[in-house]
Structures are given as C-alpha cells and as structure tokens.
Amino acid sequence: MTTDTPPGPPLRGRVEKREAILRAAQRVFGAKGYAATTMDDIAEAAEVATPTIYNHMGNKEQLFRYAIGAANERLNARTLEALAAFPADPEDLREALLELAANLTRCMLDPDAWAIRRLIYAEIGRFPDLFADTVNRPGRDASLDALAGRMAQLAHAGRLRMDDPARAGSHFIALIWADLDAESALGTRPVPPDAVRRTERTGVDAFLRAYAP
Amino acid sequence: MTTDTPPGPPLRGRVEKREAILRAAQRVFGAKGYAATTMDDIAEAAEVATPTIYNHMGNKEQLFRYAIGAANERLNARTLEALAAFPADPEDLREALLELAANLTRCMLDPDAWAIRRLIYAEIGRFPDLFADTVNRPGRDASLDALAGRMAQLAHAGRLRMDDPARAGSHFIALIWADLDAESALGTRPVPPDAVRRTERTGVDAFLRAYAP
Amino acid sequence: MTTDTPPGPPLRGRVEKREAILRAAQRVFGAKGYAATTMDDIAEAAEVATPTIYNHMGNKEQLFRYAIGAANERLNARTLEALAAFPADPEDLREALLELAANLTRCMLDPDAWAIRRLIYAEIGRFPDLFADTVNRPGRDASLDALAGRMAQLAHAGRLRMDDPARAGSHFIALIWADLDAESALGTRPVPPDAVRRTERTGVDAFLRAYAP
Amino acid sequence: MTTDTPPGPPLRGRVEKREAILRAAQRVFGAKGYAATTMDDIAEAAEVATPTIYNHMGNKEQLFRYAIGAANERLNARTLEALAAFPADPEDLREALLELAANLTRCMLDPDAWAIRRLIYAEIGRFPDLFADTVNRPGRDASLDALAGRMAQLAHAGRLRMDDPARAGSHFIALIWADLDAESALGTRPVPPDAVRRTERTGVDAFLRAYAP
DNA sequence: TATGAATGAGAATTCATTCAT
DNA sequence: CATGAATGAATTCTCATTCAT
Q1: What is the CATH number of domain B68-211?
Q2: Which segments of chain B belong to CATH 1.10.357.10?
Q3: Cβ of A209 and B207 within 8 Å?
Q4: What's the rounded Cα separation, in Å, for the pair D160 and C151?
Q5: Nearest neighbour of A131 by CB, restricted to B179, B185, B203
Q6: Chain F positions with any atom < 7 A from a protein CB
Q7: pLDDT tens for residues B173-205?
Q8: C1-58 belongs to which homologous superfamily?
Q9: What distance in Å separates the CA atoms of residue A107 and residue A140, rounded to the nearest whole number?
Q10: From its phi and psi, is residue D59 left (phi > 0), alpha (psi between -120 and 50) or beta?
Q11: pLDDT tens, A179-193?
C-alpha cells in the first residue's frame, strides 16, 4: 500500500511511549510533587529521552495536566464502578452499605488516589482551574451524583428517609471516611485493615441511625 | 530599656526580626508552596537580607518546619478556644452544637488554615515526620481530645448516647464539614455564608439524629 | 508515473523542493540570523520535513552557504543589469549618471539585499571564506569591474577625467550611497524616496565636480 | 588604606567585576556574535562565575546592550577626539584633511570598531532600537555633527564651497572610506597601510576637487 | 549581627542531527 | 527520497548557600 495518510488521531507514532511518559509522570509527580520533580526524573522513569517528553507533551505544566487528568480518570472509573455494584434494592441494607463503604474506602485509600489528592492540594494554588476543570467536574461530581442517585432510590423504596439525597450522600462519605485521612497520615502510613473496618462500621451505623426511617 | 527601636517602621530588634521572618515565611510558603518559594522571596517579604534568614533559621527546610509549627500553633489555639466556649451543660443542645459548628468551620475555612493544610498535604511526602510531630500531635490530637471530652460530658449528662466519644467527635466534625472542602475548591474560592450555615445545620441535625438518646 | 502529486499546493518534484528550501532559507536566515534560525524554521517555511533539508543540503552550514550564494547571485545579476543599461556614450551625462545612481541604490536598498548584507556582516567571523569566495569574488568584483569599465569608457570619450577608473567607480558608489545606510537604519527603516533622490543627486553632482574634465 | 587587594589582579572588588564582565562581553560578542556567544563563554573570559553576570547585568540581552553601549561610547570618544584635533584654520588644507582622514580611518579600521559594527549589522533585526538609541544617536550623530561643523567653518573661511555642510561631511567620509570595507573583508583581514594611505589620498583629492572653491 | 556579593549545582527547554519506516 | 519520531548536547537562567565585610 502507498501512503494514504493514516486517518484517525493526529497524535501518531509510538502511543506506547506516550503512555509510558504519562505513567511515569503520575508516579514521579505523585512521589515528589510538582516543583521538586524534574523532567529528567520523569524521562528516566519512562525510559525515554527528555526531549521526547517535550515532543509529546509540550512542557512541564502541560504534562502535569495530562498526568493528573489521566490518573483522575482511572481513579474515578473505579469509584463509579464501586457505586454501580451497589444493589438496586438490597436485601440487607446495612450489609450492602458496609460493602459499599468498604469499596469506597478502598478506592480512597489507594496510594495512587492519595498521591493525586496530595498533588491537587499542593498545586491548586498554581493551577487554579485544575480542580474545577479536571478533577471536580468529571470526577467527584459524577461520583457524588451517582451516590445521590442511590440515596434517592433507597429513599423512594422507603429504606431511608431524607430531604436531600445529595446531602445524604455527602454525609455517608463523611461518616465512613471520618478521620481516616489523619489515621493514614495523609496516605503516608498504612492503616490496619480492622481500623478501616471499624471506621466503616461505626460510620455506616451512625449513618443508619441518622437516616433510617 | 535595651532596645531603642528607631522610630518609624525601620529595623527591628532581634526577636522581632525572627517573628517577621516567620510571618513572611508562612505567607509566602502558603501562597507558592515549598519548592516554588525562594529564600529571596521570603527575605523580601520580611524586609530582611537573605543571609539573615540563615542566621536565624539555619536552612530552608528548618525554616519551613518553624513556619509550619508556628502557624499551626496559632491555628490550634483558635480551635481550642472554640471548643472551650462550648457550655458544659447547654440549655438548648442543638443551638449550642450549631454555635460550636459555626466556630469550628470558621477556623477551618480561614485562608491561613487552608494554606497550611495545603502545604502539609503537599509536602508530607518530603517531610514525613512533619505531620506526626508538628501537626497532628500537638494540634489535631489536642483538639480532638477536647472535643471527645465534650462529647463524653454530654453523654454522661444523658444528652447524647454513644459508645466511643472520640468517634462521636470525629463524626461531628465530619458531618459539619461534609463537602465544604470541595465547595471552597480547597480554600481557593469563598463559600457563601448561607451555604456554610446550611452545611452546619444539616450536619448538626444528622449528628443529633445519630447520637440523640 | 511515479509521483501522483496530490492536488492543491502540494508536494513538488525534486528540483522544486531544493528551490523551495533555498528560498525559505534565504528568507528565514535573513530575518533571524544564522544562529537564531532553526532547521525546523526553514523546514516549516519550505513546507518540507526537516530531514529533507539534510538530504538536500547536508547540514546547516552548507545550507547557509548555498542560500547566501544563491541570493547573492540573484542580487548581483540585478546590479549588473543596472550597469548594462548605462548607455555607452550618453547624451546628457548627468542625466545618465542620475539614472544609473537610481538603479544602483534601488538594488542596494532592496530588503533582500539588506538581509544578505546583514547576514554577511554578522557571520563573516564564523565563515571567513564566505565573503571572499561567495560574495566578493563572483559578485561585488564583477560589478565593480563593470563599473570601472564604464568609467574608463567615459574617460576615453573625454567625458570624465581620471587616473584610476576603478577608484572612480568606488568613489561614484561611495558618493551616491553616502549615508543611506544610516538613513535606512541598516535596512530596517524605509527611506523616503525623495531623500534617496537627494542623496543620489548631491552624490552625482559631487562626483561630476570631482571627475568632470 | 585598609584593604591591600591580594597580589596580582586576581580577586576584584565590585565595580572592577562589572568592568571585567563588560570587557569580556565586548570581546566575546565581537568575536562570535550574539547568538553564538554563551553566558558561560563570557563568564570564563571575565574570570567570573556565570551567575555573577546575571547579578550585575540581568540577562543576556541586557548584557549585550550594556556591552554595545560601553564599546560604542569608547569608540565615539576616539572619533570625536580625531575631529577635535582638526585645526580651526589649517595652513595647508590638503595636509590637514589628509591627517584627519588618517585619524578617522584609524578609528574605523580598529578591530574593536569592526567588531561592534558587525554586531550591530547582525543584530539590528532583533534589537531594532539598538541602532537608533544606542549607536546612532549619541555616537554617529555627534560625530557627523562635529564634522559638519568643521566643514561649515571651512566654508565660512572660504577654503571650501558647499551648500550643505552635513552632506559635505558625509561625502568626505564616504570618499576616504570608499571600499576599505571590502578591502578589509569587513574587518577580518588587515589592509596594508599604504593601501589605506592611497585610499585616503585619492579620497581627499576627489573631495577637494568637488568642494574646493 | 546584618548584609551585598559571589557561586556551584542544577532545571527547563531547545536544537542539530539521526533512525526507522 | 521523504518523513515522523527520537535524542545527546547544549544554553539560559535560578537558587540555596556561603564569603567577606
């Protein structure tokens, strides 16, 4: 075949290299923060020459945005998955909520999730739109909406009682998370599984006391 | 009289210089993050020559620790104050909890508090002991202990019912804070006061439903 | 049929590509100087891929030489043309010299000519042979020789009086050019036509006073 | 005298360092051009650490402007000196003009002068104001004004005849310079002294023929 | 003690050039 | 041949830190 300009994504060539760069960037940025991470660090981690990063990503800031965006997408997908697994009309509500809580804390305690969260906290000053555009909008909002939907279903089914399903969702998250952030020293210290379980259980129970009909 | 501070805004004595450096460091670190802040930035903000900072603080890392420590102390004092203001045996429990909630969120939404929180999130990777030694131990723990004490008092007085006062305190904080972090875009966006009030109110009410006898 | 040149302004054949590269190189080198010009700049201006330049021209230095050479050739041709247009035995000598002066200054004030002149000034340090081999020899020398020939003719015809026709030619050029270089800010500022005319006229008149019999 | 600056010229003070940097910059820029000169080159030539250059000069462009400005000043001073040495009412006009011519060509053929001239030609594209602000205004204009003044004096004394002294000055310069630029290959090749003398002499003679009363 | 000046060690980014197709 | 991708080697500029006063 002659060359008939391969149609499709304009970004051509070694897609694998692009992927490797993004993965490496997530890893290194997550470990060292934005400013302390050098492009050479990432190049080395990705096993690529430094200029290759510039060819693919433009500059450090762009790379950061791409990396955050990609990581966030991955993480949000897992959160939505956890929510999707929640049964429409659970037989044992407490049991179902406990499992949901376990799934959610697992997502939130994941080292990658912590890394991203720390990065966003750290850099929101210099990337003010990052939170709104990249993180909150497509990620957190979607998850909270989905959770609110579940809450509304439960209310409609008479299993819970609430005025504002979105608020109930927030409260659910707040209660099962409680002070796990402090316990894990912002993700830098593993939390013993039974401490997590206990936090989830007491959270779910408080939630049920507050929202059971 | 030792120091005859020359009139006007001019050069200060010894201790005042140290104070000025610490204040400047809190301000600049808080605004730009650790790595993006230069010693010259701080020197300029403190109206001091750069080597003076080294004379007083040793090096950048030390300065950071001192600055975080000082800021944290100030912030914690205010939190403890808020807790101390809680009446021992409130007449109207809901009213008292609402006021406590308002005091606590005021502390937590304070721009300085956000700046410190962001810094700690950002740098905990490179200052692993910072959280444990400087922040959590003398600060958060004290506050949570004080709150737990209040909860225990209320339980003992039969106003609330709970197994674990510390946990109840965590739940209280969690509920009145709910998603104020997202609402304020991690402290980079002001939250309308009535949104804060609503969050506090729904939080307090959920708490009361969960913990009232 | 090997090439099925896609329609539009598309890829050219072999020689046209070489031409396009040379033209682009003259343009870009002329605008930005040697060191500040990147091969990618030229590739983009020539609508060619960068390696194609290497295929055709070897390397940056070679390309520079080729480009300077080609531009110089073009410019010199125009100068020689102007000289050729000078009548062998002009009726009105002053008129004829004025026209010659106008033709020559037009060549010398041409933006392309300025660009090349600036380039040569700039790079003669790093391309010492450039001036001798590429510019002076086939270009300037030829023009000055031709001008000297004209002068000799005029002397022989008794219209002018001189010892050294080459020197007279230099003086002619010098006088009609006078400080047009400064007036045009080395070619970066247009000179009003009547200022040019005045310079030519006063130059020609001084020349005639100096060289008329 | 407190400080007896350690022996030799090794460690300098403050102003001396600035001077050394400027001298080195003139030398290196003059030899290699703006873009091809690195700050490290200059630092090495000045026996200074690279950041010291930034402390003193800001950045490369600033340094270039300072260097050009300083060199230009020096050169112009010498040109004005040459003009000042011209006698108010010379006994032998031709002799005086020959001496002036010799002084002027000496200034103009000076390697430093050539270096600056080449730099300005080279960089006027990227420093459009350089010529107008730094070079032409305080330098060339002053010299040409002074020369025009001399011409006017000579005209007033009846030694020369002219309409426009400034133009006569330009013509003088043009004639005594003639094609010395080409002869010296833009300053990269020494011109034998007697070739210079001959150019001056023929120039002065042509000038006298054109402007003698 | 406080400071203006100096510097060694990087860091982001660019560029001429070469592969592999 | 032409080209998209890749890279080693700079280059400008910054910064924490130290001297010398």
Answers
A1: 1.10.357.10
A2: 68-211
A3: no
A4: 26
A5: B185
A6: 1-21
A7: 999 999 898 888 888 889 999 999 999 999 999
A8: Homeodomain-like (1.10.10.60)
A9: 13
A10: beta
A11: 898 888 888 889 999
